[in-house]
Design goal:
9 strands; 9% strand
């Protein structure tokens, strides 16, 4: 029995065809070239995310030159906010709903761990997506679109799509392309085989722990090598290379709204955590006498530029993300978290986001939530956060 080919039939088939059609619609509108240029500009402004989850977009995404399946997957995941407002008002809502349903179906179909509930949800999502796609039936009525209805049955029979995807074989081309510059272009197949064999040997050596780079060449402030069971939620280097004198720092940034009440907020945060109070609901007010009990040695704190957050994926894989204020500074937390008493404290200085009032989002409305920074005039616009609360 033949199985569905997710990479070629969806990412390089269905979605590519739909994306191409949307680009043509933009060109057909008045000042279409400017709209497409705005689309490319928005894609280029999308930051990267995670370890290879969202890659950097080129400055001409609409031209779709030299794009692989993973690139079209990135385009789908970021298409909703990028396309917003480019179509006329009477069509924009329909386009946003279509993109939402397609991205939701794509995410469910590509799950690496399925339950009966997720398979049923995938089937329901496809029905909703079909209703949206019918509006494009004059342009997209091809086999690649009709085969989308076979995914639920195929997953029930053969398992998740990653177990029979052609992407595994396609990715082997990267190895050949990486080894090819190392050859002298004479008897290339034999030299490629030699490099591939050498790579496999080195990989096996590294797995058994005999690689010299596993210990001697480890960076000074790299995360310690620990077993999976003992892995901490996050890692922040204990380096003291960047000391910050609080009073000098505040004096040099006088008038900066982000640093208003910086020291009182820092002391309040420390007291909350030392007393084991609920940080998610900062209703308790500490008196000056209590705040003065917090003594910061030499009035100095130490700045660290990155934080590594470890987490478990839904399919039981261990992964991590690196938080960097210059590149990936946005984080998500749960409210109402409590932490045990600590002495050596790690804190994050953050600016809070809040959902836009009146904006309807979620599966019911097929729309993504919208967030905005809290106004600078709000006393709680900036504050401290326990790194252990980062999701």
């Amino acid at each position: 029995m033949l199985v569905v080919d997710f990479m070629h039939k969806c990412e390089l088939g269905t979605w590519k065809a739909l994306f191409t059609h949307l680009i043509r619609l933009l060109y057909a509108l008045p000042r279409g070239s400017e709209l497409v240029a705005a689309l490319d500009s928005r894609f280029q402004q999308v930051p990267t995310f995670g370890l290879g989850v969202i890659h950097c977009f080129s400055n001409n995404t609409s031209e779709m030159k030299r794009l692989a399946a993973c690139d079209f997957e990135d385009i789908l995941q970021c298409a909703i906010p990028v396309f917003e407002g480019l179509f006329p008002d009477d069509h924009d809502a329909m386009m946003q709903s279509l993109l939402y349903q397609f991205a939701q179906w794509h995410a469910l179909a590509k799950l690496r761990l399925h339950l009966e509930s997720t398979v049923n949800f995938l089937e329901e999502t496809f029905k909703k997506l079909s209703q949206k796609l019918w509006k494009f039936r004059d342009f997209t009525c091809t086999y690649k679109f009709h085969v989308m209805g076979d995914y639920v049955r195929t997953i029930k029979l053969f398992g998740t799509t990653d177990s029979f995807t052609t992407q595994i074989g396609e990715l082997t081309h990267r190895a050949l392309k990486a080894f090819y510059p190392l050859t002298n272009k004479l008897d290339t197949p034999a030299q490629l085989a030699k490099h591939e064999r050498r790579h496999c040997v080195l990989q096996r050596v590294g797995e058994v722990g005999n690689s010299p780079s596993s210990s001697s060449q480890q960076p000074v402030h790299a995360p310690p090598l620990v077993s999976y069971d003992n892995l901490k939620h996050h890692y922040i280097a204990t380096t003291q290379n960047n000391p910050v004198n609080l009073f000098t720092f505040l004096q040099s940034h006088d008038g900066d709204p982000t640093l208003k009440n910086f020291i009182p907020k820092l002391r309040d945060h420390v007291l909350y955590r030392l007393h084991g109070l609920d940080i998610g609901y900062c209703d308790h007010i500490f008196m000056d006498k209590e705040q003065n009990l917090i003594i910061i040695p030499n009035n100095t704190i130490y700045s660290v530029q990155t934080m590594q957050v470890h987490y478990m994926t839904y399919n039981l894989w261990h992964k991590y993300n690196t938080i960097n204020p210059r590149t990936h500074g946005d984080i998500m937390v749960l409210s109402g978290e409590t932490r045990p008493m600590l002495q050596h404290l790690e804190v994050l200085w953050v600016r809070w986001l809040v959902g836009l009032q009146g904006h309807k989002s979620g599966m019911k409305y097929a729309c993504l939530p919208k967030m905005a920074f809290v106004e600078e005039s709000d006393r709680d616009a900036f504050g401290f956060l326990d790194p252990g609360q980062v999701i």
